[in-house]
Amino acid sequence: MVVVAELRADEIELVDSRLPLHRLDPKSGDASTYLIAWDGDAPVGHAHLAWAGTHLQLPEIQDMFVLPELRGRGIGTELVAAAERLARERGHDRMSLSVSLDGNPGARHLYERLGYIDAGVPHVRVLGVIQLRGEPFAVDDTLLYLAKPL
Fold first, then answer.
1. N or C: which terminus of the chain has fewer CB atoms within 10 Å of its end residue's CB?
2. Architecture of the structural domain at 2-149
3. What is the pLDDT of residues 124-135, one digit of tens each?
């Protein structure tokens, strides 16, 4: 059984050695939260939550990841459910996320199955080099924004 919990400071080294925590910024304070899916003592997935400064001005699930060999086993569903619970606990009534328009049909199917619908905003083209954890990362993608009432 998978358990989802907020990433603690004393877990960062272990989790970071097994999962790609692209948006990890220990200085972000309350501006973001990483949720980690644990199978026993092994981290098997994560979701980053941004609480402010997002495209739709809603809490946003970002950087969701499940180990490839464990996909299709409900871990992503558990991560999204935990993110939604945490958002409701913090007083939010909607959640958003973005997904590659053409590059990740499995993720898009998951989000739509969980009730996320097109947010009605223009697609966003991301092209160029962005910084992830202080390192350059080349991006060429078009994002579709989805939202869901909580």
1. N
2. 3-Layer(aba) Sandwich (3.40)
3. 998 998 776 667
